[in-house]
Amino acid sequence: AYLVFNRGANGAAATRFVLMLSGQTAGQLRSVEGGSPTADVVTATGTGQTTKHASGVHYEPITLEMGLDMDPLAYGWASEAWKPSSALKDGSVIAVDASGKAFTQMDFSQAVLTAVETPVLDAGSKDAAFLTFRLAPEITRISQPTGNPPVRGARGTWQTANFRLDIDGLDTSKVNRIEALKITQAVVADRAGEFREASKHPGRVEVSDLKVEMSTSSSESWAKWFNDFVVGGNNGHDREKNGSIKFMSPDGKSELGRVDLFGLGIYRFAPKAASSNTDQVSRQLASLYCTRVELRIAGQKIASESPSPAASTEASPSPSDSPAATPKPTKPPRVEVSPKPSAAPSPPATPVPSATPS
Description:
- The strands form 3 sheets. Strands 1, 2, 3, 6, 7, 8, 10, 11, 14 and 15 form a 10-stranded antiparallel β-sheet that branches. Strands 9, 12, 13, 16, 17, 18, 19, 20 and 21 form a 9-stranded antiparallel β-sheet that branches. A two-stranded antiparallel ribbon has the order 4-5.
- Helix content is 6%, strand content 42%.
- It is mostly beta strands.
- The chain contains 2 helices and 21 strands.
- It has helices at residues 72-81, 220-231; strands spanning 16-21, 24-29, 31-34, 37-45, 50-59, 62-66, 89-96, 102-117, 121-122, 131-136, 139-143, 163-167, 175-178, 182-190, 199-207, 210-215, 241-248, 255-271, 283-289, 292-297, 300-303.
């Protein structure tokens, strides 16, 4: 039965959500949303009367927000998803109350990771930062946990103001804002006659543009590259650049994670709109395409694949390293939660909820 996922039988709200992947604890989530079943409404127009009926069943996309203190298992999912022959994942999100007791869970089966998104980075912000994972499950089910999942403590706070951008040959010392970077993967639905739920298959991977704001006083090298690359037409792959966005600790001394950028090409460089009679710093806006990225969290490399010949100094992961997709189940099994991560059961089919802890 589909119940209110984030509340127990006594009405107590969940205070934590724990992600399980293939029977292993992947860490505590900041928030979770989606995963509910829904149907399409079909309208039929007859002679003088319109009728409607529900058709088919599919499941809402699931959105997970997480910090940089998850188990590498969670970030490794992106590594698998960005390979040409990526595997689908089974997992669960378990709701835990204030006493640490798990009271319900949402299992998801054969999910495609459709997007990984970094937060907007702003030097003037005081907000906490989180990565956003979006997935498209083939099936979700609500079940009862068989134990309480272990939850490890956070490694520290990641804030949107703590970042550093480096790009070959460019002055990035006064970059004050970077828009969210998004790596997306298309989903192909395959509906078979004997199944009500359509199976999901991963498609093409794309990287969004890098959009940067900086002080005009440090923009000379950017303007020179733009004039050569765009106005001068010298924009072959040998003129593209590589770089990285580094997520720093609050004291700015430790690197919590990073996004390595490959095959960067500038295509727009213009002043930011400004108002008259106001005291403000003159700023420039730059837009760059990006061919490929590698996400590194806690020393783990998570690389996106691209067929384009990016100017990269590192080799892309081999497609042959990708695990094969698991066959479509008719119903996801309930996840067994072990109090010790090392005693994880065989890969189950587990899923997600739709709520944010209070």
